[in-house]
Amino acid sequence: MLRxxxxxxRGGALPIVIIILVVFSIYGISLLSISVSDAKHASLQxxxxxxxxxxxxxxxxxxxxxxxxxxxxxxxxxxxxxxSIDNKTSSPTxxxxxxxxxxxxxxxxxxxxxxxYATGVIEDSNIxxxxxxxxxxxxxxxxxxxxxxxxxxxxxxxxxASGTQSNPAIKMSGSxxxxxxxxxNTIGDRSIQLEWxxxxxxxxxxxxxxxxxxxxxxxxxxxTNHIPAxxxxxxxxxxxxxxxxxxxxxxxxxxxxxxxxxxxxVFYPIYNDGYYNLIEATSTRTITIDLGGGDxxxxxxxxxxxxxxxxxxxxxxxxxxxxxxEDAFTMGGSSTINQGGSIAQVMIYYAGGATIDLGGSTSxxxxxxxxxxxxxxxxxxxVMGNIISGGANINISGNADANTRILYAxxxxxxxxxxxKIKGAVVGKSFNISGGSDPAxxxxxxxxxxxxxxxxxGGGGNNGGGGNNxxxxxxxxxxxxx
Length: 482
Description:
- The chain is an alpha/beta fold.
- The protein folds into two domains: 43-144 and 467-482, Pantoate--beta-alanine Ligase, Chain: A,domain 2 (2-Layer Sandwich); 157-463, no CATH class.
- Helix content is 18%, strand content 38%.
- The chain is built from four helices and 31 strands.
- The strands form two sheets. The chain has a 27-stranded parallel beta sheet that branches. It has a four-stranded antiparallel beta sheet with strand order 1-2-3-31.
- Strand 2 and strand 3 (127-140) form a beta hairpin.
- Residues 144-148 and 458-469 have low confidence and may be disordered.
């Protein structure tokens, strides 16, 4: 009986033992699988790390090759050297014959930088890692034996016209006043015309060399009433040449249209240089342009900020947004460009012939160079920056506030009416100032560091001059990794 009982006990324990063995077997296999997986993951991670450092080594090797080869070359030779390796991919290169991997590098040239794309490859695992290194473009100005300096801006306004009684160089009416000195090359009889309530305060009126103030200036009061500081003659005629309008870049990648249709949660960023058919901001939406710490170069046929905004980010210390606008530039409503930013951060070159209207309650902070288009600043529109114009007419009206610093239009007739006003220094061919602004022009010494130095040769600044420089040299300095 006892023996039979023990045999039954042994028979019942056997399945339990088998189950335990199976469980431990599965557990052991799982541990082995996890161990193998961890080992494989660690091996792949090691390969990724090796591929990454191979890529960095390749980028550093190419950057050193470029920098070393640019030494002692003329600007023409530098450009030829860069062009010879631009947009070409190297053959696979190993750091040593025993290496499991290799790197490949490719150089891409843009307006502002040389970008090195380097890829590290581990052959047996086919792991690839890519890094990007930038060499930032900088201009080293050559010596200029015959500098063409920035013109003198030491008066509220200066009229370059000779002027006559029927076509005066300066005409003031209404109750407008000027704060600061005024100048003109005119020597013609009654070529400066004032009415009863017009005054030049805190400054002298300068007329052409050897001219007679009592013949040149016409007003119903004594000259000392209209001009308490008096009238003096210039020692020589002043020249205010029109700077050359720049050529537009023709090597930018084409990017089509950039518009701002409503899509929930959509952000409207521009990160790269490019050539656009249209850039448009409407319905109070904002286009954010990333400067990447340098210059962002954008060429566009039609820039339409009819009711929208452009703001900048990552400007760095000297970053600029440079717009080359071909056909049309529209800004209206309560649109803004670079509101709250620095004047030097934006430069618009406008080649179109259509009049630019900055009306409504628009706000533009930056510089603008008009090839030959008229410009109207009206309503409560405001410009804070420097305006250079080759056009024939500039109108400032309504309650417009042109806080221009410099308005340089030596070929233009400048008309200020209503409550329109200008702060800064103005150069024009002739002036008609009416309405009731007190003052209509308020002289403020301009900050020439805000004026793009490429516009006037000999101007100095970050971008050097032009004109008769012996030779400007484009150099490249190490930028950042991506």
